[in-house]
Write a structure and sequence with these properties.
mainly alpha, 113 residues
Length: 113
C-alpha cells in the first residue's frame, strides 16, 4: 500500500522534465517569440510528452502521483523563473498528458476501456 505513495521516482522524473525545458527553452526565450522559438518549444514539449508516455508505461501512476508530478513541474518552472502564464499552460498540458498517458497504458494492459 505504501508503495503507491512512494514519490521519489516521480519527483526525480518531474525534476528532469524541468531540466529539459530549461535546456531547450530557457525562461529568457519566452520573450523572444517568433516562429523559430515556437518551433523549439513545440519540439521540447514533444520530447517531454514522449518521456511522459514512457514513464507512465513503466510506472503505475495513481491519482496522487499524477498530481504530484504536475505540481512538482509547476513549482520547478516557477523556481526557474518562467512567467506565470507559461507555467500555468505548461502545467495544464503536463497534467493532461499524464492523465491521458495513464489511461492509454491501462487500455493496453487490460484490452478494455
Amino acid at each position: 500500500m505504501l508503495e503507491a505513495f512512494n514519490s521519489k521516482e516521480v519527483d526525480e522524473f518531474a525534476d528532469s522534465i524541468v531540466a529539459e525545458l530549461l535546456e531547450h527553452h530557457p525562461p529568457r526565450a519566452e520573450s523572444a517569440g517568433g516562429a523559430k522559438e515556437v518551433a523549439r518549444l513545440r519540439k521540447a514539449f514533444s520530447r517531454v510528452f514522449a518521456r511522459i508516455d514512457s514513464f507512465a508505461r513503466l510506472h503505475r501512476l495513481n491519482l496522487y502521483t499524477k498530481a504530484r508530478l504536475a505540481n512538482r513541474v509547476r513549482w520547478g518552472l516557477k523556481d526557474a523563473g518562467y512567467r506565470e502564464d507559461f507555467i500555468a499552460t505548461a502545467t495544464q498540458e503536463v497534467a493532461t498528458h499524464v492523465a491521458l498517458a495513464g489511461s492509454r497504458g491501462e487500455t493496453r494492459r487490460t484490452g478494455r476501456r
